[in-house]
Structures
1.
Amino acid sequence: MENYFSNLPAWVLLLFIPTFPITIYVISQIIKRGGIDAGLSQKQSKNIQYGIWGFFTIYLIYTFVLSQTGILLENSLPPKVLVFTAIPLLIILLGFMFNKPLYDKILDKIPLESLIRIHLFRFVGLFFLIGAYYKTLPAHFAIIAGFGDITTAIGAIFVSRWVIEQKSWRRKAIIIWNILGLVDIISVIISAIHTTKTSIENHTEGIVEMAKFPFIWIPAFAPAVIIFLHISVFKKLKKDASI
């Protein structure tokens, strides 16, 4: 019988599973606060928050069900986990949300440091390294993905602090950090595609662990949301030259 669940120890899974619900909650809280500061009523802001919870709850359930069908475990180019999850989510975020007046209105009122601090969830990169340790992920892929995310998360701590303290160099620091964070997630996607290509040629498993539950949540959720957040930071910087 095919195993659609991760082979990592139970303690790792129990530590990992709350990561994305907590991240979604934090994002929804920041957006709710931004809505209130933008002049929306408590009820309107709450409804937006509930909408975010509802959408991502359905989405995470969808990815769980998809992981249990087994169709994502077949190595293919492009990787099916990107085709069925990450790409559709990115289209929704950029295509349907990015240019909405309500998005602009709320983004104007969200503190920049809050947008940056959200990236603390990228400490999830630690799980790539754990996967490499237990040999469920190729070491070269895990190192690129893991250390890149962890470095970006550490950078978010310092950069958000410099924004709060209004350091004179904060704008340059934000731009550098934002570019590096965006390059990191793009490099992870490229590495995933390259590793999958190599695994097809060599008849190895590659990164199929990322198509199993619960780790499917990383490629399904993180790339699209991270790209959206980085673009939002650039958009906020462009609109506010005083930062």
Note: The first helix runs from residue 10 to 16.
2.
Amino acid sequence: MSFDWERDFYAATDWDRGAYLGGEAMPDHLETFFERVGVPGSVADVGCGPALVPFELVPEYPETDFHCYDVAPSVVAANRERAAEADLDNLHFSVAGLPDLGVDRRFDLVYCMATLYFVADAERAVAELYELVAPGGTLVCNYPNRHTRAWVNEDTDDQRREAFELVGRGENLLSYERIRELLGRTPRSYWSAVGASDADYARRSSPAVYVTKPA
């Protein structure tokens, strides 16, 4: 039986509002990226989980609409409640999962971190994410590769190995070159763009890229 985020994590653990990749540094990284590419009018955070990044950035960017998607209904409900309590009118949450989100709109920035690890058809998911990008907009994502697989198979934490079982079996691995082939555009390093290339989470097993769509 495959890992189910609703059943096996959000409904079964006392989860917190951290970011599963990069931790508390992730909002600052995305803010740095805004400074580099320009502040987007709309953002999609796909696989948002506890939504640390949007909750941190939304108050700073009141003119930007943030639409956040996750496959787990309970975390979406908790996020909606928190956003309502904080009167964050430009922050929205919906239940949706890759590779078929079913979202019928486009965004200036599509952001997907620590999510493709858990999607069986990662190639179709990347194509779906890029489809959500408006002309002139940008996709930011990280992805599992052969180094991620080695990290998973060396880990001794049973829950983590179960959660990353697709990666451990090598079923959804990607590469820089494969992303370039899929999208017809050259990816660039997100970690380098935000000045995080020396961080311990920006290692070979956690590559992150950005791809800009022609206007």
Note: The first helix runs from residue 5 to 10.
3.
Amino acid sequence: MKKNNNIVTMPKDLKGKTVLVVDDNIMNIMIANIILKKYDVVVSEASNGEEAVNYLKNNECDLILMDLQMPVINGYEASEIIRQKLRLNLPIIALTASNTEEEREKCFEVGMNDYLAKPFSEEQLLQTICVWIGKPEDFII
């Protein structure tokens, strides 16, 4: 449970939600898996943007956690493809080590919905995910 700006998030209601974690760093994927699986989230993985795009051509998910700096196709390009070519409207949350306003703006320009700077806490991750795929009852004001 996390309280932020008078909102309490109850992540237990994420059970069964599907999240695609896109990151070229195996440790980041492991950390996301550990956190999300505690709340019975179904996690799929891709190690670059090309794998993410190919995954989404044949599979559905509720939310994407997208690293920005990856080989083959980076997070910016992958997000543009997901929005423009695949025409998917699912939430994309950028995950990045850089925390500049320019980078944040670029994320929104390519169609990402939110932004988390690494390192982030478990509570920050869960709060952000709940904002985008939680149920109204997840929040108590």
Note: The chain has one domain: 2-132.
4.
Amino acid sequence: MAEKRTGGTAATKAKNKYNAKAYDQFLVTVPAGEKAEIDKATKEQGYKSRNEFVVAAIREKMVELD
């Protein structure tokens, strides 16, 4: 029987530890099919990632509140 690995590599653990300290994370839930629409808008508007697009949209809305 093969030995079961737990926890991942040292590099992965280090990255996860850094990310936990440096970033806040939250889950965004959208209706089925809307993720593809968001991805399309992300590419059309020249963003590198969905995350970059969503963060920009949130910041834009936050500026509107000021």
Note: The two ends are 61 Å apart (CA to CA).
